[in-house]
Recover the amino acids of this structure.
């Protein structure tokens, strides 16, 4: 016997019981986003590598170490998307969405891919739901995204969450701060990891995102960007905080927060639950990205929710689907019964059938093993009466259900 093939390391199967939880959370998140005027966009999993080099940043860990890159038969260098904001902006420009609306609100969902070290709640294929507002410069747009996330988590029933927020400033602020930070770190570089020694020279802000303990202790003593923010960036951040205070959104400043992507400007934020170090959602403003990808100067901001982490932490109340198990006894009952059942199917009751020619006892054992409460039986006697025999496997209750009443019967189960 050949060795069994298993899933690739870092990838995983999401099985039916878990999928039900995912669908409940996804549905809730989509409803909240749509109530704020967001529309769904679906973008490809595969893009040209240069899209992410130009957007995410050539010296980020994502591009340097974590991307799945390959050549296709046309010798094009492609990549599995490590994140979706760049894909959404590419689609926004390619299809001239800016000509249709001054403010464009889009949301997406689906898998992302990073060749990262697999660990708890961190996979090489992971799932995100994200939202982007393209065309809005006012800090009220930043606040809207944070308020949306707050509403989502309140609807889920999570109260112990907090937003960590920082400003990474405009281009001028980032340049000034980078020079000051580089000067501070160069004298301490020998005590930092090899990656950070490279980052100091090539992209110093990435040092702030390092998770190595020795580097983190040095970063705590580093200068903070708040000390050199220009008046425009300070005013933007102060207005954001005032809006969040008015909405009673819990937040705290984290002066070392930069996120792992180079395109951020001004506001960056992460959402954490129960003082967990790992963020469940994060995002911020990226006012340069549209222009950097070939479009006009356009302000924008967005967020992404890590669905793997969220679904592993949260167990929403899920209304279990009503399942009806249908048994056909004999070829004649099978031929006529399948047509009758398929004619009255609806979206709210799962009707499952085993078309195998087995005894009634064997079919009922299957229903019992699968914990199915409702069973419809159609044999020769029932066929003559133009009725199904209904049996409740939990209570033992039985009754006849006319073919003509089958649709109402299913509605009755749904409303019970």
């Amino acid at each position: 016997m050949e060795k069994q093939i298993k899933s690739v390391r870092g990838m995983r199967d999401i099985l039916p019981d878990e999928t039900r939880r995912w669908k409940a959370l996804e549905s809730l998140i989509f409803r909240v986003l749509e109530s704020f005027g967001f529309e769904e966009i679906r973008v490809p999993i595969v893009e040209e590598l240069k899209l992410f080099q130009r957007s995410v940043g050539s010296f980020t860990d994502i591009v340097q170490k974590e991307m799945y890159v390959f050549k296709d038969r046309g010798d094009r260098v492609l990549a599995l998307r490590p994140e979706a904001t760049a894909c959404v902006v590419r689609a926004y420009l390619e299809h001239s969405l800016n000509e249709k609306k001054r403010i464009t609100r889009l949301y997406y969902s689906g898998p992302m891919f990073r060749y990262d070290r697999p660990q708890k709640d961190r996979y090489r294929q992971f799932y995100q739901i994200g939202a982007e507002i393209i065309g809005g410069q006012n800090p009220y747009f930043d606040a809207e995204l944070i308020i949306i996330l707050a509403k989502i988590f309140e609807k889920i029933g999570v109260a112990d969450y907090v937003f960590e927020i920082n400003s990474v400033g405009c281009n001028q602020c980032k340049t000034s701060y980078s020079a000051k930070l580089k000067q501070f770190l160069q004298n301490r570089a020998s005590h930092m990891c090899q990656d950070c020694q490279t980052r100091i020279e090539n992209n110093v802000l990435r040092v702030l995102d390092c998770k190595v303990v020795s580097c983190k202790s040095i970063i705590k003593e580093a200068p903070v960007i708040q000390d050199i923010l220009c008046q425009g960036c300070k005013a933007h951040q102060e207005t954001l905080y005032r809006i969040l205070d008015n909405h009673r959104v819990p937040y705290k400043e984290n002066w070392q927060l930069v996120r792992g992507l180079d395109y951020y400007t001004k506001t960056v934020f992460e959402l954490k639950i129960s003082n967990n170090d790992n963020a469940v959602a994060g995002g911020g403003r990226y006012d340069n990205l549209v222009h950097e990808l070939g479009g006009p100067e356009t302000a924008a901001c967005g967020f992404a929710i890590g669905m793997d982490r969220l679904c592993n932490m949260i167990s929403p109340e899920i209304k279990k689907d009503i399942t009806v198990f249908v048994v056909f006894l004999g070829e004649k009952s099978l031929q006529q019964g399948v047509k009758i059942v398929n004619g009255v199917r609806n979206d709210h009751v799962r009707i499952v059938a085993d078309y195998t020619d087995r005894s009634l006892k064997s079919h009922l054992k299957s229903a019992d093993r699968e914990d199915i409460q409702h069973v419809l039986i159609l044999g020769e006697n029932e066929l003559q009466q133009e009725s199904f025999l209904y049996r409740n496997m939990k209570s033992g209750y039985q009754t006849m259900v006319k073919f003509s009443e089958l649709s109402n019967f299913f509605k009755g189960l749904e409303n019970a």
The mean pLDDT is 91. Residues 38 and 256 are 31 Å apart (CA to CA).
